[in-house]
């Protein structure tokens, strides 16, 4: 979890792909993400999380992951949104552009109630 905290720290956008080895739809989501990743690699950090690992379950619940695949969007440690289900490339492209535009307008992340910092303290 410390690695995730480090990756989400700072003032940048991150996408966490929540997946499981038993879910075949996750492979399709990987393909969609691979297609858009190159376009947004400079503005967005792409991460992934195996939802079968028990130590991540509190974090996964906090991100409102109700089904797989899912993508969690973060500005620093502040949770912005979660998309559940397989997404098409054009949908992700629009979403990513919107978040980048919002990032440019807002700058530093707020101490919003969506902050997930409490997750890391619970041990």
Automatic annotation (TrEMBL):
CDD domains per the UniProt record, alphabetical: TRX_family
Thioredoxin domain segment(s): 6-95
Superkingdom of this protein's organism: Bacteria
InterPro entries named in the record: Thioredoxin-like_sf (IPR036249), Thioredoxin_domain (IPR013766)
One protein family per Pfam: Thioredoxin
Protein's name in the database: Thioredoxin
């Amino acid at each position: 979890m410390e690695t995730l905290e480090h990756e989400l720290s700072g003032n940048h956008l991150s996408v966490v792909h929540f997946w499981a080895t038993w879910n075949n739809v996750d492979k399709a989501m990987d393909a969609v993400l691979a297609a858009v990743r190159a376009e947004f690699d400079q503005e967005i950090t792409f991460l992934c999380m195996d939802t079968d690992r028990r130590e991540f379950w509190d974090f996964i619940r906090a991100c409102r992951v109700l089904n797989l695949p899912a993508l969690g969007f973060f500005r620093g440690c502040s949770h912005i949104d979660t998309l559940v289900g397989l997404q098409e490339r054009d949908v992700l492209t629009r979403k990513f552009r919107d978040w980048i535009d919002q990032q440019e307008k807002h700058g530093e992340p707020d101490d919003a109630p969506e902050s997930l910092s409490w997750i890391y303290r619970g041990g």
